[in-house]
Task: structure prediction
Amino acid sequence: MKRGQNEFTQSPDSKFRIKVINSLCISAATCVIRAPNTFDLDDDGIAYVKEGTWDDAIAIIEGAKSCPTTAIIIEDFQGNQVYPAV
Result:
């Protein structure tokens, strides 16, 4: 399993924690197009969260919003869900 798949991961440069729910990912790669410094696909075509400096907050949220199956969950460091809205 890659970073951020089925568990939250974070970057020191970001305000968010991100999780990709593997069972919901359909390899659309819209997250990669919107936030290429944050997301990539593994060898099985499942999105994961890259190491290093992520995209800015707007791009990360847009990447999550572009997912057709809502497979990406974003939280702030206090555990409040930022996307999708609850």
Remarks:
- The longest strand covers residues 16-20.
- Residues 57-66 form the longest helix (10 residues).
- The helical segments are 30-34, 57-66.
